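Training component of the fellowship. As part of building independent skills, the fellow (R.M.) carried out the full modelling exercise for a liganded target. The chosen ligand was magnesium ion. The inputs are recorded below so that the supervisory panel can assess the work.
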Amino acid sequence: MSLIEIRELSKRYTGDAGCVEALRQVDLNLEEGTFLGVLGPSGSGKSTLLTLLGGLCHPTSGKICIDGIDLYELPGEKLADFRREYVGFVFQSFNLVPYLTALENVMVPLAVRALPSREKRTRAEAALDAVGLGHRCKHLPNQLSGGEQERVAIARALVNDPPLLLADEPTGSLDTETSHEIMGVLSALHAAGQTIVMVTHNRENLDYFDRAIQLRDGRIVEDRHGRSRRLQAQG
Amino acid sequence: MRLETITLSNLRRRKGRLIFLVAGLLLGVGTVVTLLSLSRALTAEAQHKLENFGANILLTPRSDNLSLSYGGIALGGVTVETEDIRQDDLALIRTIPNSRNVAVVAPKTLGAVQLNGKRVLLMGVDPSQEFALKRWWQVEGRPLSADDELVVGSSAARNLGLSIGDKVSLRGEPFTVSGILKQTGSQDDHLVLASLPVAQGLLGKPGRLSLVEVSALCSDCPVEDMVHQISSVLPDVEVHAIQQVVKTRMHALEEFRRFSLTVAAVVLLVGGMVVFVTMMGAVKERTREIGIFRAIGYRRSHIMRLILGESIIVSVFSGVLGYLGGMTVTWAALPFLSEETSHASHGETVSHWLWWHPELAAGAVILAVVIGCLASFYPALHASRMDPSEALRTL
Ligand SMILES: Nc1ncnc2c1ncn2[C@@H]1O[C@H](COP(=O)(O)OP(=O)(O)O)[C@@H](O)[C@H]1O
Ligand SMILES: [Mg+2]
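Fellow's submitted model of the complex:
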């Protein structure tokens, strides 16, 4: 069974400026352990797809099942619980809580869980170590570089051991070198078995994905399995 | 790390807002505490004075005749001998509903006796009650303490040529003058005081009373009520209220208290508005952050707890500060509002009436928390209802 099953998913935004069809009848199955790249021009519906996958808003029609759970059938606050247990989010522009240290930021998802405080701390430290930032846990976000903040955000997304990691243009505001570092971190996670869905408009990242879909006007226009030729040539 | 850790860190990092919130609540709670403790201290002072002023209720034997004395001059011969008050009946005063407010019951038996060849008015009193009632009495020598002692009013002492330690005889029985009342400027100056049973024996009125003065401390019930209650247990006795200045002051204080509560309500409302506006601003400012929390899997109730937790901490803090501030202001303002300032030389200043009120302190904190929570409930609800995907889009 696939980890993710998307059926005829549509999302229409109705605003003052009229309707926007952000997603139109999208179908997608994703196996566990896949590193999926979502590509497409700006406004093609990439973020919308990710938001729906993460249970952050409701689709206009269609459904999403993750690990056999029909997301949008979940009652009330259960969707929040689902997010906490099943998905880790890494947002475009790092989104750390400015008044909390790196370690505290990583612990935020654990704050609402009934765990001994020592375990919360060890878990958060382990997550920071996993992204190579164990030595900077006492720093506040504004004392960290962009790449470091991004690593903290990844550590925070992973601290609950979610089956699914969602990342929306995690390298969007980083320079090329730092982008590669972050992609390195994500590949390492993927190598360790993590399922990742990552939105990017940078075709250079194609090398890292083992599956890539291309969106245009809310539709999947291309779905390519396997690594890009360039990476295969290198490997 | 718990939700409270996030709340505390946020407060620590945003001191400006913290100060604003605290100021809003502190002002409100401080005003309430000041006004309440002020009116309380002034009431306590007036109550004390009421006690010092002496009796405010007078019990006399019922008489069917009109009083035939005026300005202290009795038009003798016309008054019919009246039935005295029975001493045993006095116990009934302690059974009235407001018996708690009865401070002093001072029974007296009056009659004329011959002393050193002159007719004087002998008054038998219960010394502990009488001296408690007439605090302005100053005795040279000792107040009454034994059955064979007399205390003599200043005019009586002068007329009779008595001084402390003199031995005299009344109806053949020996007495010692143990004390002389300093001049009071009242009819008390003409009296000879003896203990109640002794005087009753000398006058041939055992168990009979001519007059009872009652001091009732009643700031919240009208003295007329007390009079009515006493009349109903002592139907054969005439009960009168003595109108007093203190009553007027009590009334004024009651007005002050009511006015205070109005002012306090307005200030509290303003404080609540300050909290509301500040919290609303804070929630707007934290939109993105709240979006992150929601995306991470915080429930709406978790967001509510984050915001309300913040206002509870701020409120408790403001409540304590408001209480301390209010008490300080009261302490500073009291001397200007009290009536006793002029003769503070007694060493007993008004701050004497300013106590540590644990229930007022608790009330201040609870009030602050209630106002703080009410004022931030809507902002918290608003925060918890924000659409996380929207919140994350706003950059
Ligand atoms: N909350 C929203 N309200 C209205 N329109 C939206 C909203 N979110 C996205 N859109 C519109 O939906 C379309 C797809 O947006 P998005 O999924 O963010 O695209 P991408 O991430 O690929 O740039 C865009 O036209 C965008 O303007
Ligand atoms: Mg986007």
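The panel noted the following from the submitted structure. The CA atoms of residues 99 and 140 of chain A lie 7 Å apart. The beta strands of chain A are 4-15, 18-30, 35-39, 61-66, 69-70, 87-90, 164-168, 195-199, 211-216, 219-225.
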